[in-house]
Batch of 2 targets.
Target 1
Amino acid sequence: MDRLSSCDIIITGSGPAGLAAACLLAANELHVICVAGKAARKQADPRTVALMLPSIRLLHKIGIWPGELKVDTAALRKLRLIDDTGNILTAPTVTFGADEIGEDAFGWNIPVERLVECLQACAERLGVTFRHKDAAAFRARREQATVRLEDGSELTGRLVLAADGRESKMRATAGISALEWSYDQAAIATSFGHSAPHCGISTEFHKTAGPLTTVPMPGNKSSLVWMETPALVDRLMTLSDQDFAKRLQFEIHGKLGLVSEIGPRRSFPMRGLTATSFAKQRLFLIGEAAHVVPPIGAQGLNMSLRDAALAAELVSDAVAEEADPGSASVAEAYNVKRRRDVLPRQAMVHTLNASLLASLAPFHSLRALGLSTISQFGPLRERIIREGLAPQSDLPRIMRA
Ligand SMILES: Cc1cc2nc3c(=O)[nH]c(=O)nc-3n(C[C@H](O)[C@H](O)[C@H](O)COP(=O)(O)OP(=O)(O)OC[C@H]3O[C@@H](n4cnc5c(N)ncnc54)[C@H](O)[C@@H]3O)c2cc1C
């Protein structure tokens, strides 16, 4: 077998979702080729991702947590929601503590670039073969999946895991359509220093154009995801660091003291996407190739890592039973289980976002009433905390406590 063009599993895309899947499969002694995409496409990424306990367990099992990765991260001990809409009916501030479910932390906030570096190094150690080219097309024929690269050469395997992002070429050439929509919002991602400690609290300020979220980083530093109208985001992106810091300090009502040291900023248009199917014979969609949500409630990559974990579990189980991992029945099991997790979460994120944007009073009243009920009713709080971390059923084995 030519290890550069023929393997067990082909993974397209080397973002966090694709690399996590590559590590999991290679750890199970499968030969994996990762079509990493052209290096030129990669842009500097100032984002951090809040990864919840089940995702952290996955990083632990593949051997990159705690290790060097943990050094650059901060624990998320409390999540606080503040109604900052200024409406007549204001919801009470709700704070969820990890101690309410007997944990020290809900998860950790990790710089995306550092996460990708550590996953990449792990995949290389585990013997994953990397091809630094773009994947152009997918084809399935009997027992075999084929990926054509941009230079016309072909790779073959038993199955393709497509983790090539929201514009996925694999999804399109496999003939899977996607429902796509956009929000009249964009988000600025950056980091900042502050004079007061964050005490491990991540705060979502719910404003009329979307949430502004601060997430703890090591020391007196936090990361920021600020969703606003695209016009205001454009203006905020042109402010000097000093003016941006002043504006941010005002928007968060001085809760973190004096704001300074603004990091590199990058803006992201806010879009949603759901593939009409997450799998077909010899192809599974992973991460943003399957689903995209706005950054509310830290759902995006946590869902994507569950895609990677379930895909690896189903493939490894099939191989262990000497069955075909690319069969229609394995694909259907993946599709059904992942949609059961992803679709309700996308709906929840969409509804929360829409309830802020809606100019109709009934929506604000409903949100205020909902948050008020949650803040007072213990069993409901606990259920919401546990479901926010991960689904209580169907969690891939590797992510279970
Ligand atoms: C501002 C912001 C904040 C966020 N915060 C959080 C958070 O706190 N918690 C959370 O869980 N999620 C968060 N998310 C979501 C999270 O960042 C994404 O879900 C995640 O980065 C997507 O990873 P991915 O691997 O699916 O896709 P990507 O990171 O987009 O990776 C796709 C990869 O495929 C490659 N590629 C593309 N086309 C090809 C091709 N033809 N051939 C080969 N390779 C190709 C690309 O180069 C890229 O490397 C946030 C998102 C935003 C925008």
Note: The chain has a mean pLDDT of 94.
Target 2
Amino acid sequence: MRIALINGSPKVKNSSSSILLEDLKGYLGKNVEIVNVELHSPVITKEDIEELMKTDAWVFSCPLYVDGIPGHLLSCLIQLEESCVKNSKKHIYGIVNCGFYEGIQAKIALKILQNWCLKTGYIWSGGIGVGGGGGLAMISNMKPGQGPKAAIDRAIEKLALSILKNDITENQYVSIAFPRFLYKMAAQLGWRQMIKANGGKAKDLGKKLD
Ligand SMILES: Cc1cc2nc3c(=O)[nH]c(=O)nc-3n(C[C@H](O)[C@H](O)[C@H](O)COP(=O)(O)O)c2cc1C
């Protein structure tokens, strides 16, 4: 079995999308062949399309952007659509991680991927909405299944089993196992540090642009 793990974050390094795919890879085991595809820009190469066509299942992992999928990934999906063989037996899975604490925020983005499958004739086979995705990069060294990532890893393990069995499952929604108020405080601290590192002021975080 050949499985494509598709990183749909615009970030080239240290994205939560890539951390989640790495965890999934661990649960898929050694008897499958993994094909890594990196979609960081609005254009998908001919080589990537050819590679994707030679796989049995695709797993998209992307961040939630404005309640949907990132624009560059949508652009890649449109290009892929033109290359798709209608009524293919390919199974499509999705992992959408978001900055908000609640994984359910990713419901619409998963629906977008499902809708794309309806259009292309591929088989939407389920996904995971991961809340608290912004914190994953901070705990990337933690072993899978432990600490604040434990609940997320359980969902990923379940998804891996479905992929290996070519199953279709319901979407799952999970959150990082970390108190919500502490997650919010850490996020606010992170934004303050980020704006200062980029030459701005913390008070500008709430600024409305005309
Ligand atoms: C342009 C933009 C829009 C975003 N929109 C949302 C959103 O609607 N809801 C949400 O919970 N998080 C939103 N986020 C936060 C990201 O989903 C979050 O940081 C995610 O963990 C990034 O994943 P990545 O590291 O895989 O790219 C947004 C981030 C950016 C940059």
Note: The beta strands are 2-7, 33-38, 57-63, 91-97, 123-131, 172-175.
